[in-house]
Design goal:
This protein is of the alpha+beta class. Helices cover about 35% and strands about 20% of the residues. The longest helix has 19 residues.
């Protein structure tokens, strides 16, 4: 059965985070933060399948350079507690081949960029060798400001307020897009972004180990406590 997962998170200075560090980690590369002078070297990390920058129409040429892009995003924010990035983390279906998964992630990112006008960095990761071999996923790191010909401008406030319904819209759209890809590949699989209760299905949801546990497994090569407890039935 195909798995659905989409979560939206923020990168915030109030949590000691920077978007240059986040970009370096996700793209497994080395980036220098011009604001702090810190060098973020994640080039030794493994598991990266692809990393693509997706920009709005009319974006300046320098934005195609990952280091310049995310330093500009950092420097566009002046508040000490500013939110400097936003991430859409998505599960990519194991039922598709590598090319299909990449097209799905990039098509979804293109729709995000076209609707909100921000810059995005699409990094696809392969499953951890010690974990579930179906756990293909992508980080879509986005700027919190729209990017125009002269650089970063207004904030994408519509994604900050749950009342706008934007996140709900994107959850539904990603399910719809996956189902279109399944149909194109002549697969009978379907996903649904709604809860099991909303779908009228009377069973417990499958366990999801979460990002922190996945990162721990990738970093250490060991099974996380979360995965072990799920396997033993300790956690729901």
């Amino acid at each position: 059965m195909a798995i659905y997962h989409l979560s939206v998170k923020t990168v915030a200075r109030s949590k000691g985070q920077s978007v240059t560090s986040a970009a370096a980690y996700r793209a497994c590369c080395k980036l220098r933060d011009q604001r702090t002078g810190e060098q973020h070297d994640c080039s030794r990390l493994t598991g990266l399948v692809s990393a693509d920058i997706v920009l709005p129409e009319g974006a300046p040429a320098w934005a195609s350079d990952r280091e310049k892009l995310w330093n500009a995003a950092e420097q566009a924010e002046v508040r000490r507690n500013a939110t400097v990035g936003r991430e859409f983390e998505i599960a990519l279906p194991a039922e598709l081949d590598e090319s299909g998964r990449r097209r799905l992630a990039l098509d979804f990112a293109r729709e995000l960029v076209d609707r909100h006008g921000f810059a995005s960095d699409v990094c696809i990761r392969q499953p951890n060798s010690a974990g579930d071999e179906r756990n293909h996923y992508a980080h879509i790191l986005c700027s919190t400001r729209r990017l125009g010909p002269s650089g970063f401008g207004e904030k994408t406030r519509e994604l900050d307020d749950l009342k706008t319904g934007e996140v709900v819209y994107w959850r539904a759209r990603f399910a719809e897009l996956q189902n279109l890809f399944f149909k194109e590949a002549d697969l009978a699989e379907l996903v649904d972004h709604r809860t099991l209760e909303a779908q009228g299905i009377d069973r417990e949801p499958d366990g999801h180990i979460g990002t922190a546990a996945t990162h721990y497994e990738r970093r250490t090569g060991r099974l996380s406590r979360r995965r072990i407890e799920l396997a033993e039935g300790v956690l729901p």
